[in-house]
Task: structure prediction
Amino acid sequence: MAEICVQHLHKSFNGFTAVKDSSFAVRNGEFFCLLGPSGCGKTTTLRMIAGLELPTSGEILLDGEEVTFKRASQRDIAMVFQLFALYPHMNVRENISYPLRNAAVPRPQIKRKVAEIARILRIEHLLDRPVSGLSGGDRQRVALGRAIVRNPKAFMMDEPLGALDAEFRHLMCGELRALHDRLRATTVYVTHDQLEAMSMADTIAVMNLGVIEQMASPQEIYDRPASMFVADFIGSPPMNFIPFHASLCGGETTVTIAGAEVPVPAALENVPEADLVLGVRPEDVILSDNSVLRGEVYGSEYLGTTQIITVRRHDAIVKARVPARVAVKSGENVGLAFKPLKISLFEAASGRAIRTSLHEVARHG
Amino acid sequence: MAEARLEHVSKRFGTTTAIEDISLDVRDGEFFVLLGPTGAGKTTVLRLLAGLEIPDAGRVLIGGHDVTGEPPSARDVAFVFQQYSLYPNLTVYDNLAFPLRSPGRRLPEIEVDRKVNEITRLLHLEGKLNARPTQLSGGQMQRVAIGRALVRRPTMYLMDEPLSSLDAKLRAELRLELKRIQEDFGATILYVTHDQTEAMTLANRIGVLRQGRLVQVGSPRDIYENPCDTYVATRLGNPRINLLPRSAFPDLPAPANTATIGARTEHLRISKAVNRTATDGKVTWVEHLGDQNHLHVSVGGQDVVTLTHTEAGLAVGDAVTIELSQPIFFGADGARVSTGGAR
Result:
């Protein structure tokens, strides 16, 4: 198993920059997710690590060894694609054993290895079935089996669950993560689906326009987004943004929005007067009758345990996730309060998160 | 008055029974959602109402008239498909005006203009009237497709997963818009989907389909809180309801013939164990999902999943006690067991 180190990686195609000065390290045994919208450069990054694409500049190290311009076949990395490329004329056993037969591994060893893989993936009962009749999930398990069987140094996965329907995808996420916990293989996983990234990754790198905007644990990214892009990309519904205009002094613990004093985490930097944005997650919004900050209920969406209330203000639309038993009517005027310790502050122009005591908690906790 | 009614309708394709003895009323002004997995018969029901299929048995009524044998053109319904089918050579305006200019129902141009403008405002497409569909985003195209159905005022609208081809964020946005438009219009809609969130948030009433049969009809709250069996219980709710064997909670008072206990987040109270006992559970995984956190607890070999706050301060390996309050009970056959009598 291996550690992957990417340094100042850069890739341009005919004047278009796909990946810009990207540096990160994937620890041995880590499940690392590259997350971002289509066109953000995540797949290009993955393909450069696998050797399917050559960088314009920068370095890739695999277990300390420089492999930047080495052939894919010399890197000992296994790729798993979205469309499970299986050999249709072979059965499950033949598909899984193919890489070993190709490498002329002795038969008894192949047999043992395939049996082991089948057990790990829980597809022992399918070994002698043709792949054509298998369900999408089972086909994906076979494709994984074929990747795992030759004990590569690392796995590269490019939206391997993208073709499955939503409910099943979540199930497969749990399964993939459990598999990772058993194998502890270094994995780089590319997806545009935040749910997949959040539920599986040890570390997520959120990419936008070829640049890594934030790299941290799922919880860190969710609780302390480094930019408005990250805050908006993660979460469903995403973080609410309320614009205001002010200057901030270090230590300040309230901001004024449309005449209402809103408690926030203490600022740790001075910000000259500018357009700023208050960011708050839907579950940290409280409907409070005596709040000065108000809005009109635009709609509510019942979800069983919780419901999403959409509140319209002249300056923003605010979504609140509240218990389903709270009764509100469309058109009703409601007060909005926020859990003060959960609020993020941003500079509107750059989208950058302003450092507050929210980030202090992170360092100590 | 019911706008649409199916009476004991069955439909087979070859040897496959698509739907079996379905009776169903869609009321005037109602948003009715049929929920079920692929192959449950949802789309067949829509096509039977639209006249694209003829039932093998039973009657179909629209606006009080028996239309069982009538062709699609004689039924006053509008259909919105999963894939937005717009005329690429026409502008947004002309796409929206198209149904009003069709030979059978042609309106004066001044009337067409008024209606197109009204719909455009409702769907927030004002700036796009002269654009061609190819210049629009996916969400805008689907709004035009929905607008083209709404521009007429048919007796009812039939919608076949119209949001499923959109990305998650846009889907959430259009969901809210569609519900608002339906309320403003007082439109009668029969909508089919396999997405429980759509069903819960859009519907006045949900009909749950399973293998061609309608197993339960009720308001989202009703179906969520009072499912008639374990199948319906697992259709709604995220995280999915925990179905636990009766034997896992021997001390819990339950009706005599209970085989399975259904416990959702709101039925579970989980706290750090103070004194370790045999019935303690252990936290196996805290799953951060972006919109919520799922806490996985292993108790007596069973995995229990519930919502949790980060503030709860539970971590993997923690011993916890699980208390149940007013869970749902099911018998050995999966059917709901009444709590009447038992406490």
